[in-house]
Write a structure and sequence with these properties.
Distance between the termini: 27 Å
Largest sheet: 5 strands, antiparallel
Number of helices: 4
Strand content: 35-45%
Order of helices and strands: EEEHEEEEHHEH
Oligomer: single chain
Shape: globular
């Protein structure tokens, strides 16, 4: 299983043709206490970088992007604070079935993302 990161501060844990997607520690730190998550519709297909949902906090709201169809995390819908308390595990946003795995090559690994987010 590999982990990739986007410039929009999302992470993807990739396992075969499936990826679990969430926001990074950097994103949840910047947002503050998450109070609401609008997740993508189950079964709908999204193009890469298309807005698929929104995460709202006491400080701001931010779009969440998704490249392909996915399965939403009902636990996060019921308890948005999981995005703050456990963003890389229980606080994942949705699962996606990758339609074009070659898109993963353009994403960052952990070392690259750490350097990128230090300057964000």
């Amino acid at each position: 299983m590999s982990i990739k990161y986007t410039e929009d501060h999302e992470w993807l844990k990739v396992d075969g043709d499936t990826a679990i997607v969430g926001i990074t520690h950097h994103a949840q730190d910047a947002l503050g206490d998450v109070v609401f998550v609008d997740l993508p519709e189950v079964g709908k297909t999204y193009a890469q970088k298309e807005t698929a949902g929104v995460v709202e906090s006491v400080k701001a709201a931010a779009d969440v992007y998704m490249p392909v169809s996915g399965e939403v995390n009902e636990a996060l819908r019921a308890d948005p604070s999981l995005a703050n308390t456990d963003p890389l595990n229980a606080g994942w946003f949705f699962k996606v079935n990758l339609s074009d795995a070659s898109q993963l090559a353009a994403l960052m690994d952990e070392t690259s993302y750490t350097a990128f987010s230090a300057n964000a």
